[in-house]
Amino acid sequence: SVHRFLALSLLIAYITLITENFEKIPRNFKMIFLPILALFFLKMYGGNFYNSWKGNLEARKKIMKIGDEELSFEKRDVVKYLLNPFQFNWQKAKKLFSDSLQINLQKNDYYKFMRKIAELDSLPVAEKKEALLYIPFHKVHFPQWETIYATQDGMFLASISGLALLSGLPHPKYQVGAYGYGYYDHSLREKTWLQGFSLDELKKLTLQRGFRNLYIYQPETQSFEKIICSEPAK
Hints:
The chain is α/β, with parallel strands linked by helices. The protein has helices spanning 2-18, 27-64, 75-83, 90-93, 99-107, 109-118, 125-129, 153-161, 189-194, 199-208; strands at residues 131-134, 164-165, 213-218, 223-228.
């Protein structure tokens, strides 16, 4: 999406450059070029807008625990919104934009997990430079990790915690050719998600990567255990 909108901005900027000589452009060329450009924009960004719009509403439905049988949206709803936002049937979607959404979000297990991870960002920068974060994915389960979008969660966890992850690549069943994952060691993915590591193994892996400390998320207590990897395991 970022690349598409960047391309759009560059195209618009280019159009402003040719407007100075617009009158010199043959009329027949303009009659052909402008509709093609309009169709290009529609093709390139129409589906993107719909997917973003639909994804936002579907996320709200999941938070509110509303099924498709109770509330669903079609492409024609998006078209109605684009043509005239004031004519859109907001009564149909009213509950998705109420105060109940935030109340339900705060009860959501995945949201609470992410809020807990984000607490690590308050650590001093010097501490974060010497530490890694380990999530025992074989013990932690969320429905969000059963979709293709789970391939992005490793980066999201690192961004909100301010810590690099130890073996934070996605589940081995997902292809991860994008996002630069090809530069990382994939040999630990299967064990990370299906078995996990002993404390001694975690310490060894942390030291091998040039870090001294390790923050391990404990799902049973929803807290973190700080491990000083230069000390022997208890």
